[in-house]
Amino acid sequence: MGTVLRWVLFVWMAVIIWAAFYYAPAASGFQGQSSRIVFFHVPTAWVATLAFLVSCIASIRYLRSRDPKEDIRASVAGALGLTFAILATVTGSIFARIMWGSYWNWDPRETSITFLLLIYAAYFALRAAIADPERRATMSAVYAILAFVTVPFLVFVVPRIYWSLHPDTIINTQGRIKMDSRMFQVLMGSLVGFTGVFSWLYSLECRVEGIRRRRQHEVL
Amino acid sequence: MWRFLAEAGAVFTKDLRTEFRTRVALNALGLFAITTLAAVSYTIGPYRIAENDRPFLLAALLWIVIFFAAMAGLDRTFVKEEDTHTAPLLRLSAEPLVVWAGKLLFNFVLLDVLMAILVPLYMVLMGFRVASTAGFLLVLVAGGYTLAVTTTMVAAIIARAMTRGALFSVLSLPLLLPLLIFLIQGTRAAVEGSAEGISDSLRAVVSLGGVMTVVSVVLFPVVWNE
What we know:
Order of helices and strands of chain A: HHHHHH
Number of strands of chain A: 0
Structural class of chain B: mainly alpha
Low-confidence stretches of chain A: 170-176
Distance between the termini of chain A: 31 Å
Strand content of chain A: under 5%
Largest sheet of chain A: none
Shape of chain A: globular
Order of helices and strands of chain B: HHHHHHHHH
Radius of gyration of chain A: 19 Å
Mean pLDDT of chain A: 84
Shape of chain B: globular
Distance between the termini of chain B: 26 Å
Helix content of chain B: over 70%
Number of strands of chain B: 0
Largest sheet of chain B: none
Oligomer: heterodimer
Number of helices of chain A: 6
Number of helices of chain B: 9
């Protein structure tokens, strides 16, 4: 990412953070200012999902091409996905404390994010347990794909079986967006901003990991 | 097609025969299940749970016992081949999908045998009654298949890694948690005799099993030939 783009991202995120607190109104029906967390919680959850998708696509591409770069992409996206999933869990948990009175109550959404965290923690446990780089890349790619196909069940089916306290997701069952226009603008801006932060971190990490592996190769 | 089935049957028979020589998986699964059941039955027993909570809690406990027993022995199918260094020979003599189908069938039969012993015992010891027996049997069979197809794939992956025993549960459980939820809901519906609940949960279990089967068919050759 070029210097100009990085500056644009910096200014964009600064404006979004300001707008989240001063431009957008607090939503009615929520305790005090608590609804403002949506501008940070939803984008982190979105980026976590996006990262897992990127990791899955990179894994499929690795199995097709056997290009080590794809393995680097898959593992970096997995690590970033895990980080953003933790952020989404923490922000969600803070909101749960304010609105529902406890940090954790096994709401279906909380359950599904826990599964996601476990799956990707398992992905890294598997990577750590295989010494041979090629075998590690193949096995973890297979596991990432296997894990990814269970995600729709976690995200869509489990919350349908259980009753949830979670506010309607942005695209709700009626397919309509019920949100104040200023809040909607800030949320969309925040989604774009967080996606930008993710792609910046992603390209940076991919380069760092590439250099690390080349160094390892030279040392060996 | 017939040839494929015959070859998969041969892999299954081979596994069954070697299993009966050592009985490692059978002992691990059976003893683990019985020990857990004894612990559950001793600490909770049939009458400590309030009447309203019984359908859900007894269903949850039953599936937790089955899942943990499965974690104790279902990885043997592939780990055994690596331990005894017979995997290369199997690779030479059979197509990857034949091996997969044979191993899947073995795990499925092993789970069914386990459930055939464990479930009646559980019913007796915990005072567990179901209103819809047919629905309950369908949930058990569909659940057994989906459990077998998922663990077969994970077992194939971990057979090529270090620290296999711990890794098998670590990798399997997160993938199996949605299945566990569907099965608990289905069993609870069978206890209460709710046909709608059973069919909802069966649909979820069967679709998860179907997805896992398709993904396994595509990915197993990659894992096996690595």
